[in-house]
Amino acid sequence: MHWLETKIPPPIVMLLFAGPGIWYHYMKVGTLEWIAFISPFYWVFPALAFLIIGAGIWAFQKHRTTVNPHTPSEASSLVTSGIFSYTRNPMYLGMLLCLCAVAVKTVNVFALLCIPMFMIYLTRFQIIPEEQAIEAKFGDQYREYKKRVRRWI
Hints:
By secondary structure, the protein is an all-alpha fold. The protein has helices at residues 10-26, 44-62, 90-106, 109-138, 140-148. It contains 5 helices and no strands.
């Protein structure tokens, strides 16, 4: 296991990836005028994020299993219904949508570039280690679920 795996809380990772786009926006560097027309609609992304994250947390609480991303091996059940029938990682998808909101609101190329970088980082250092722990715990049931439902969407 790599020393970064599951060590930094995902919301902190999201904020770290939002930072460069916001900073460059205030420095007036990398502005993308061609997407400025959608800037007033940036609120759609955090609204969707709130709904998706909330649905994920609600599903975990309904099944009385852990929401803590640092202890996936403590999951008491494999949640595959509700929002989890569309994405295996609704909370991370919600965070991704928050980064999309930053990119649209700041109209900045650096904020836009941080979106795939966030996905790559989170997949490598959070999602894959979580998947390994969940697969070790739930075996074939989880492998079948992975065949049906995508990691992000």
